[in-house]
Amino acid sequence: MEIIVAGAGIVGVSTAIWLQRAGHAVTLVDREGPGRGTSHGNGGVLAAGAVVPVTTPGLMRRAPGMLFSGDQPLFLRWSYLPRLLPFLTRYLSHANDVHVRRYAAAMGRLLHDSVDQHAALCAGTDAEKYLGREDYCFGYATRAAFDADGYGWGVRRQAGVRFDVLGGAEYATKDPVWGDAFGCVVRCRDHGRISDPGAYVRALADHFVAQGGILHLTEITDINVADGDVTALLTSDGLMTADRIIFALGPWSKRIAHKLGVEVPFESERGYHIELTNPSAMPVNPVMVAAGKFVVTPMDGRIRAAGVIEFGGLDAPPSRAPFDLLRRQMADLLPGVTYDDVTEWMGHRPAPADSLPLIGANTVGGRSYSAFGHQHVGLTGGPKTGRIIADLIGGRGPNIDLAPFDPQKHVARQVRHPGRDR
């Protein structure tokens, strides 16, 4: 078939490659080019154990205090609050144990083999050199802080995540850059790292093109819909049609999804990172700083600190406070590390209200597919998502329960009124 994949982040590029390997003629469409958005700026961790959503029990009680503190990893542009409220109400309604367990079961199935999925995707390509199999660690200031986080670790253990709990001094013998920064470190097995996410996605896209795929840089301005399904993309270069169209546009997917009747409650989570270039010392493993909810990752020639959640929409410029928070925290954590300079970045994570990505056909007819909404784990889940979409289009049933990710669960159901609706 002739297939269009809209969006050239890790999810879109992975989907294009797996479709190409299945024998389809694939065109990858993007406004700026591969790996320029969230796929460039993420934390670089293949977080196979990321099965605990942000919306855990007690979040509603904790959130106000976090929003009014400049030292907490949750920010809000207050002028955006009126537009945010409908989403926020739905988002916070999922801060309960039932939803956490449902989320963990679904995401565990999607993410558990993340490193192997990346290895299969990039094998034999120039992207292969960016893939590593390092542990993913969580650093706590004290053992008591780890114990207070026991709910989340219980959920991970139940989902099959393997981890060891170490004293901070013991861990520092293996990763000395941290010194006495942590009193307790949790080391998660079966994880991995991408040493330069943007370069990794671009190398995969180069491979796709070298194998005969088409990369078309243009802006998608609208879609044509007939009989409830998409028939064409309207772009700044004109009309584009195909047998199948996949939408992997990240946070820019909301408008198109809603036009197709997939009324998913959806927002952009604005994420921030800073990078210390040419540092005098490097961490061995990526480390989630539990108190600040950001990850510190060794990259090629730099240390990246990425995290923070800000709700402020797609259009507003970056805020200063998240950058300042990351700078203060890194100065406290790594006081002996020198570096040439600091660079800053802000991007957008696609956040459905239930935190579950949309993966599958938008309609029963299966002309268009969704592959977006991965929130914090787009890099982790991108290759497997692409493989699932390719299998669905090829008529092969993936060996995973896709019901939690089904876009059609969000389709608005119209109530018919006898005598009035015809």
Automatic annotation (TrEMBL):
Please give the GO cellular component terms listed in this UniProt entry. cytoplasm
Looking at the keywords, is tRNA-binding present?
A: no
Pfam families registered for this protein in UniProt:
DAO
Please, which domain of life does this record's source organism belong to? Bacteria
Keyword annotations: Oxidoreductase
Q: Which InterPro entries match?
A: FAD-dep_OxRdtase, FAD/NAD-bd_sf
For this protein, the Enzyme Commission number is 1.4.99.1
Which GO terms fall under molecular function for this chain's record?
oxidoreductase activity
Please spell out the taxonomic lineage of the organism that makes this protein: Bacteria, Pseudomonadati, Pseudomonadota, Alphaproteobacteria, Rhodobacterales
Name-wise, this protein is D-amino acid dehydrogenase small subunit
Q: Which residues form the FAD dependent oxidoreductase domain?
A: 3-392
Decide whether keyword Oxidoreductase is in the record.
yes
